[in-house]
């Protein structure tokens, strides 16, 4: 079937380069040879693209092509079916069913091992299916009689795969344990009087250290390639949940203090944390902090902002300004990416993009271009661009965080109670009185919602010290005891 080519550049994640040696690319490949000549592929049939993936004794596909096709092929064919097709083509083309094996198989063995190595390193979750491992064993069974070293290399490949899969499962366990700790905290609100909440500054007063701990969390939560519906949902939700939590935590920390001076100090501290996040290359936490400080309950605290030193904040806001499709941010991101490419230390390799914008870019690229062209060809140019963006993110997320973990700070960031929207509004109005009729009406409504709480709270503090069971039939509703408003009012209405 005819092919269409394009002359754009393709991206390949450098960290996915195989450790196996290969010969220079050759064009003596038969029907697939034309694919690797001249310009890069723009479109082709699925069968032709699969053929181009299959190595021979004197041909190996470009790493950019391998990554792009393995990333996109699952939209048209299941991974286990694709690997089955690859193995079948290898057996036919190299006549692996014949005995004794031809000497040329010795040249083919390293090539197929390299393909399997790149596949398992880049998309390890594909190999959670037994059928995938079965296909690997099948092809190695064919070439092993030619050289027993292939068995050793296969063992190493499977061992590395096992480690990667275990690491992926560990990340899932971490997220689950974090969710469980938050759940435990909510249960505690229901069953006993909660001590006054500590604030962020009492846990960590060094903005540099706090920005490092935020970076720890971002790198742990970095999304890996995942293609089952359950994985897609859990991974995306984990990232969105963390961003939203950090936004609300920032707003809660600012609205919580009763005194204007303390609120101003918190604002200045969080500005310094945001600046350190920018210096590190942690743009996701930076945007979450800025978003939290721009929430209405925080931005309306004019007297508090007037007392704080905010010059650095406006500079950071300018960097993350959405004008021009986030032009300033994208410029800063390119600078951080360039620094990462030339860096010698993990500290300089860190790049954590603003995740929501990354997803938006990928979404519109995917929705704006068809997967197949009118002639039935796979739109490979589209998937090359998708692979460029996904590949960059996969490289960035593989960086090991160089900063020491501070468990006390991490625990606070994950589990500290946060206000919901009503709680933030009420705390904001208590800190600085409403200025217009709309705010006054909102304040009145919120106060009436928990009006009975003041009397009820006094009754609780008058009970016997050994009795700590809260009444979940409170007029404000049982959900009241599951929120940090409880802590706020025990702080402010003593």
TrEMBL record:
CC per GO annotation: plasma membrane
Keywords for the protein's UniProt record, in alphabetical order: Guanine-nucleotide releasing factor
Pfam families assigned to the protein according to its UniProt record, in alphabetical order: RasGEF, RasGEF_N
InterPro entries from the UniProt entry: Ras-like_GEF, Ras-like_Gua-exchang_fac_N, Ras_G-nucl-exch_fac_CS, Ras_GEF_dom_sf, RASGEF_cat_dom, RASGEF_cat_dom_sf
Listed GO MF terms: guanyl-nucleotide exchange factor activity
All copies of domain Ras-GEF, residue ranges: 206-434
Top-level division of the source organism's lineage: Eukaryota
Keyword Transport: no
Transmembrane helix keyword on record: no
N-terminal Ras-GEF domain sequence ranges: 37-166
Gene Ontology terms: biological process: Ras protein signal transduction
SUPFAM superfamilies, alphabetized: Ras GEF (SSF48366)
Annotated PROSITE patterns: RASGEF, RASGEF_CAT, RASGEF_NTER
Name the UniProt record assigns to this protein: Ras-GEF domain-containing family member 1C
Source organism per UniProt: Denticeps clupeoides
